[in-house]
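Hi all, posting the design record for the shared folder.

TITLE: backbone redesign
STEP: 1 of 1
STRUCTURE INPUT:
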């Protein structure tokens, strides 16, 4: 018993919450259980939001999205071993996407784990996490909990942001500590992502390369949206007149309808650019590794990147600029003289003509009167409703559901689109949607393939439990990529088949949300407008022609025999 004279006590559970609050974290996403349930309870008692999920992967994706949207690390809380492993996919994905998040997980008693005595949920979680995340720390002593949280916050935010794993053994969480010592041990991180400017030499080298261009192209990556660098990037683009190409989660950094956007002439712009300015965009698979024939053999690259080791990863970088995007793009915008770049007007004119032709072809596809709906006609209806609700945050995943929506749905503001990202991960959808609604209070529209939806579909209950303004549209073509795969060996369904008659809308109704089943663009428009008007959880089951899709990355095509037999 604590006698009246004994100094007041705290413990590891109280301390981890104190440390999070001290670092401006106001929300924790997770699934509770041994040994972290009381962390969630104490967080709520301290006035933090705790959002309870049905699967740790969705909780982790929510934390990652919170990091991307909110400018400080999102936090995911998981139980030991299986819960930790479920959440690890999201922490690894956050690291690949460069989103700042911290996965805090309880772990089992080290003394038992390290001797492999068969403890409850026994797993060396620190060793398991380390290869997959930006950094991993374990806190053995309760007096180090504040230090552990501070290290996790700074590491998640600084340099190239990413996912950090923080391991809290049950013995640390349960350990008592004098309250005054606990208070002293909490560290508030000062300036977790310090500004990093470039040298004059590096800047002059970049100015020289850019001002030598006749066909320059600016590629805007999600790093610009993440770094909240939209203002300096807009200044750079508009002051120089250079055309720009946004990557999918950078859409809206400048509005998609901007006259200098060449998104609708992407292939031509990439193939003919002679100087490419990469802003927070990596030359990875999404940009064909910068290789020809997609890119000109003699193109020269200027790259603004916070992680020096990224440079030259795929193409030699003629003018590396290592620093944070806000600082460096600001330096570049100032250093480039107005009129200093003599852009080939004929090239700009050809790009505009090409873009206009592609836009006209798309408009015809959107307006086609076909039944059942295909991806274009369904997303044409979504596009019109979205235009009336510009603040919406769009979440998007699938294969065709992703590719068509990325091209058809324009973004006008930064940090309004969340999708499968660099890893092409399915299952991000409803976790991202929950965080988007919780962090911003804005309406959220999740455009999901029917397979992609299935990965996190049970989070419809989470969305309904918190009454979030999330409308999920399931583009139901009855399969992965498409619903009519002829390759099945009857009576087995094809490996890509899903239930074409599935009624995903009824899932919402099961949890008190609104469900809509639609088969035409008019019905889809009405359902979306009703869902917006209600501002509550809704699922729209949108029937799509099963023959409408194409299979991504048909590996068989690379192998002549297979291609012949498949024909
Ligand atoms: C975690 C995970 N599992 C599996 C895949 C493979 N995969 C899967 C399963 C996709 C779903 C495509 O079907 P969909 O219904 O979501 O979309 P469409 O039918 O509109 O193409 S897209 C894709 O690359 C993946 N990328 N990520
Ligand atoms: Mg599908």
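Okay, here is what came back for every position:
SEQUENCE:
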């Amino acid at each position: 018993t604590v006698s009246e004279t004994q100094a007041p006590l705290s413990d590891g559970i109280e301390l981890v919450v104190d440390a999070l609050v001290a670092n401006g974290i106001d929300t924790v996403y997770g699934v509770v259980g041994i040994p972290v349930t009381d962390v969630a309870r104490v967080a709520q008692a301290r006035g933090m939001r705790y959002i309870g999920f049905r699967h740790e992967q969705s909780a982790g994706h929510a934390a990652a999205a919170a990091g991307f949207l909110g400018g400080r690390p999102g936090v995911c809380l998981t139980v030991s071993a299986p819960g930790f492993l479920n959440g690890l996919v999201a922490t690894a994905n956050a690291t690949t996407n460069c989103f700042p998040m911290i996965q805090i997980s309880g772990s089992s008693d080290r003394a038992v784990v390290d001797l492999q005595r068969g403890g409850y949920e026994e797993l060396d979680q620190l060793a398991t996490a380390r290869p997959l995340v930006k950094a991993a720390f374990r806190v053995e002593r309760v007096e180090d909990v504040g230090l552990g949280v501070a290290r996790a916050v700074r590491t998640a935010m600084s340099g190239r942001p990413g996912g950090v794993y923080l391991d809290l053994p049950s013995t640390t969480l349960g350990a008592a500590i004098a309250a005054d010592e606990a208070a002293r041990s909490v560290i508030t991180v000062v300036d977790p992502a310090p500004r990093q400017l470039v040298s004059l030499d590096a800047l002059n080298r970049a100015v020289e390369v850019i001002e030598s261009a006749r066909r320059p192209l600016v590629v805007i990556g999600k790093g610009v949206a993440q770094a909240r660098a939209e203002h300096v990037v807009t200044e750079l683009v508009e002051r120089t007149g250079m055309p720009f190409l946004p990557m999918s989660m950078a859409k809206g950094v400048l509005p998609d309808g901007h006259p200098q956007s060449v998104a609708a002439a992407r292939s031509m712009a990439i193939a003919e650019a002679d100087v490419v300015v990469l802003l927070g965009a990596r030359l990875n698979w999404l940009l064909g590794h910068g290789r020809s024939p997609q890119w000109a053999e003699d193109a020269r690259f200027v790259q603004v990147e916070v992680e020096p080791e990224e440079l030259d990863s795929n193409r030699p970088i003629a003018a590396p600029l290592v620093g944070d995007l806000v600082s460096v793009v600001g330096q570049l915008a100032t250093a480039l003289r107005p009129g200093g770049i003599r852009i080939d007007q004929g090239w700009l004119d050809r790009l505009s003509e090409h873009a206009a032709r592609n836009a006209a072809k798309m408009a015809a596809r959107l307006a086609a009167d076909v039944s059942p709906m295909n991806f274009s006609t369904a997303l044409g209806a979504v596009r019109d409703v979205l235009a009336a609700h510009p603040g919406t945050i769009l979440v998007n995943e699938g294969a065709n559901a992703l590719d068509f929506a990325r091209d058809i749905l324009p973004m006008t503001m930064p940090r309004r689109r969340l999708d499968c990202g660099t890893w092409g991960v399915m299952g991000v959808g409803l976790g991202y949607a929950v965080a988007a609604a919780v962090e911003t209070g804005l309406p959220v529209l999740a455009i999901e393939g029917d397979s992609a939806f299935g990965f996190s579909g049970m989070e419809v209950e989470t969305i309904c439990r918190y009454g979030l303004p999330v409308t999920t549209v399931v583009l139901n073509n009855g399969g992965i990529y498409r619903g009519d795969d002829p390759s099945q060996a009857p009576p087995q369904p094809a490996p890509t088949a899903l239930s074409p008659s599935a009624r995903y809308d009824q899932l919402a109704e099961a949890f008190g949300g609104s469900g809509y089943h639609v088969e035409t663009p008019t019905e889809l428009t009405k359902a979306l407008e009703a869902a917006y008007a209600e501002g509550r959880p809704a699922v729209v089951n949108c029937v799509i022609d099963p023959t409408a899709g194409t299979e991504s990355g048909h590996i068989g095509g690379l192998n002549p025999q297979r291609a012949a037999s498949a024909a």
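COMMENT: The first strand starts at residue 9 and ends at 11.
Let me know if anyone wants the other runs.
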